[in-house]
Amino acid sequence: MTTYTTLIILSGLVIFSYLFDLIAGKTKIPSVILLLFLGIGIRLAVDYFNLLKINFTSILPALGTLGLILIVFEGALELKYTKNKNGVIKSSFFSALSTLLLTSCLITGAFYYITGESVYKCFVNAIPFCVVSSSIAIPSASGINKEKKEFIIYESSFSDILAVILFNFMISNESINISAFARLSAELGGILLVAIGSCLLLLYLIGRLTHHIKSFLIISILILVYSVGQSYHLSSLIIVLALGLFLNNAGQINISWFRKYFIYPTLGHDIKQLFQLSAESAFIMRTFFFIIFGYTMDVYQLQNWMTIVNGGLVLLLIYLVRYLYLKIVLRTGLMPELVIIPRGLISVLLFYNIPTSVKIPALGTGLLFVVILGTSIIMSLGLLGTKKSAAQEFKDV
Question: How far, CA to CA in Å, does 26 sit from each of 122, 359, 380, 384?
Answer without folding.
Answer: 39, 39, 11, 10
